[in-house]
Amino acid sequence: MKFVDESIQVEACESALGIQKVAELDDDGKPRRTGNVWTASAHIITAVIGSGVLSLGWAMAQLGWIAGVATLLVFSGITLYTSRLLVDCYRSPVTGKRNYTYKEIVKNNLGETMCMACMVVQYALLCGVLVGYTITASISMVAIKKSNCFHQRGHEASCSVSYSPYIIGMGIVEIFLSQIPNFHKLSMLSVVAAVMSFGYTFIGIGLALAKVISGKGEKTTLTGVEVGISISAADKTWRMFRAFGDVAFSYSYTPILVEIQDTLKASPPENEVMKRANTVAVATTTTFYLMSGCLGYAAFGNNAAGNMLTGFGFYEPFWLVDLANACIVLHLVGAYQVISQPVFSVVESWAVRRWPKSEFVTKECNIGSGKHSCSINLFRLVWRSSLVMLATFLAMMMPFFNDVLALLGAIGYWPLVVYFPIQMHIVKSKMRTRTWSWLGLQLINSICLVVAVAAACGSIQGMNKSLKKYKPFNVKE
Q1: Which of 65, 336, 337, 447 has its Cβ near the most Cβ atoms within 10 Å?
Q2: Which residues, 6+ apart, have CB-to-CB distance to 13 below 8 Å?
Q3: What is the DSSP code (8-state) at residue 476?
Q4: DSSP 310-341
């Protein structure tokens, strides 16, 4: 009788453990998702508010008060609208099955050919952003070094610094952080990065506001930089095109939107939560963009630098400028991981399907114990480290890569942020052609395509200038 009781107890324990294990899984058999509106908003803000926010003063200087403010508001509205269309495609309306990535949504709604086109644009853009982030972080680190040099030796001193050691340092840090398995483990890093983005944006806005209040603000105009001796009509046009591209690219977080949505809990419905997160994130970023762009333009006028914190629009208080640039570096360290996860994931998923029995690809090695344990996969270690090293190498080799990044952004904005979400919405809703709704969507599509082409032309013109003074591995300022 005793043995029967013990057997029943064992079966009860095993049953309880089985129920607990099932409870820890979602409806698709994957570990239970824990994301909410705030973690999703943090991921988006981390990806969107980059150090490019500090260049919006330059963009405003090229466009002027009227066109500059209007451009920011129009692009924020378009991005919010098209992202809401995209999040409704996360689950299949028939089966309720999840689509884990952007390319899966495109494949299931628009077919294999469109999926391949989407993959080429999406992953080229994301890989380009990794190189751009590496360069931008090193620029901020160099700015800290130069700021201290100017403070000690005077503003006219020669404080030339090589970017290469800082680019390598950024790469080493990212190799370690890239071993974080997936988006689900990035929440804390994203929150820290989002806080850092608020930090340096507030500092930049505060310094610009102080300059305006002190009466030292420079000349501004309704139409921006004026054609004259220092700038021709052609140069003015190219600059306006690049400014459109800068603003459009500053809202290009859609390529990672689906991956962020896949971190959300199943209840309440993911699309409803993601729409709220989109609204919070876009409203927050647009507010910061307007404040930074308008105050940056008011402070520096038509001579606004590409980045008011690294371009030394401010020299003092040097410690505050240093703090802002340190926040930029910390933010980009986190944003790098948010941007890179879709690239990591697509190769790792392919490798598991290709070699399902390979221990090198599939085996997880646990290091440590308890809460402080971590899991290392050899394929993940080699693949992710290789990609980070390649991005670091390209950042060192091509000092003008920001022009290439602007070109990738111009090319990527229209298909990823506008075209695919609109086309999938038309297919999903079975919208009839030549209705008012269809015509309105096609109008948005056409306008954004024209802007993207113009921005791409402006980026190519800027890249052509950079090529004339190109020196490989000689990134120095």
Answers
A1: 336
A2: none
A3: B
A4: TTTS--SSHHHHHHHHHHHHHHHHHHHHHHHH
Q: Are the C-beta atoms of residues 438 and 431 closer than 8 Å to each other?
A: yes
Structural domain includes residue 169 = yes
Between CA 329 and CA 229 the distance in angstroms is: 38
Tokens of 213: 């209040």
Domain that holds residue 150: 27-468
Domains in the chain, number: 1
Three-state secondary structure string covering 369-387: CHHHCEEEEHHHHHHHHHH
What is the pLDDT, as a whole number, of residue 14? 47
Q: How far is CA 153 from CA 147, 148, 149, 474, in A?
A: 10, 9, 6, 25
Between the CA of residue 216 and those of 211, 277, 299, 405, what are the distances in Å?
A: 6, 39, 7, 34
Q: How many CB atoms lie within 10 A of CB 348?
A: 18
Q: Residues 124-133, buried b or exposed e (16+ Cβ, 10 A)?
A: ebbbbbbbbb
Within 10 A of 33 (CB to CB), how many other CB atoms are there?
18
Among 399, 88, 132, 92, smallest CA distance to 249 is for 132
Helical ranges in 355-435 per DSSP H:
359-362, 378-397, 401-413, 420-429
Question: Which pLDDT score, from 0 to 100, does residue 4 have?
Answer: 47
Map tokens 């070699």 to a residue: 355
d(CA 443, CA 449): 10
Burial 39-70 (b: 16+ CB within 10 A, else e): bbbbbbbbbbbbbbbbbbbbbbbbbbbebbbe
**Burial tier of 228 (Cβ tally within 10 Å: 0-12, 13-18, 19+):** exposed
Helix (H) or strand (E) holding 366: strand 364-367
For residue 288, list its beta bridge partners: none
Measured CA distances, 111 to 93, 108, 290, 386 (Å): 16, 6, 39, 32
Question: What is the reported pTM?
Answer: 0.80
Q: Kindly give the parts of the chain with pLDDT less than 70.
A: 1-23, 50-52, 182-185, 229, 311-315, 368-374, 399-406, 409, 469-477
Residue 18 lies in a domain: no
275 domain-assigned: yes
User: 3 in a domain, yes or no?
Assistant: no
